[in-house]
Amino acid sequence: MRLNKNIASALGSVLTLMILLCFGQSCSKYEPGELTKLADKEGADKGSGGHSYTEVYENFFFPLKYKARKILEIGVGGGASLRMFQAYFPNAVIYGIDILDTSHLNSRSIRTFIADQAERKQLLDFIGTHGGNFDIILDDGGHSMRQQQVSFAFLFKYLKPGGIYIIEDVHTSLARVGAFEVESNRQNTTLAMIDHFIRTGMIESPYLVKEERNYLIKNITYCNLLSRNRGRSIACIFKKRKSISGG
Known about the structure:
Strand order of the largest sheet: 3-2-1-4-5-7-6
Number of strands: 7
Mean pLDDT: 89
Order of helices and strands: HHHHEHEEHEHEHHEE
Shape: globular
Low-confidence stretches: 1-28
Helix content: 25-40%
């Protein structure tokens, strides 16, 4: 199991990475900072005007730019991120889950679904309607401890082998006690779950069932915290093992 706490070494040299990625395809299609520009254009808070996550995301997303077929984001809002993904991944269908009806955003390549990310039955209804095998799943939903951890544990199984799962705004784990369901000892927080996994390779969460914990332990091959804006914006990037192990 490859666990890496050093973001700089995990990302490596951006220049070297792009040279490798461009091998065998047209580099003229790559525009540095394209994802950030699209985020800023659409008003998505992942860009330079908000959390600045896209500056790092692009290193993970570019290899999938023309290969990705299914991308899921939890938390739709006004649809800015869905439109950003739609523009960046030309061959993908972009799915969005939200507790509110956002069907007015639906198009040929955008499909939305009403669901509470903390309710497994509702997530299963989404999978029953749209299937799994997602290249990327990104959680920018309600940011509570239960929401982040339940949706992560349930949906990770429906991520494509080698796929990417991102939990955004993990800094809610650092909120005052009571906010976002943070308990006084903070052992129920998503950040505590991630920190424990990085240190031990084990998943501990009061919100998960045994089968979910075992599946995550066996199938997470990469876990890295991403800190931006001097630690005020924190996300976590996971990668799924390419050869899937049973739960």
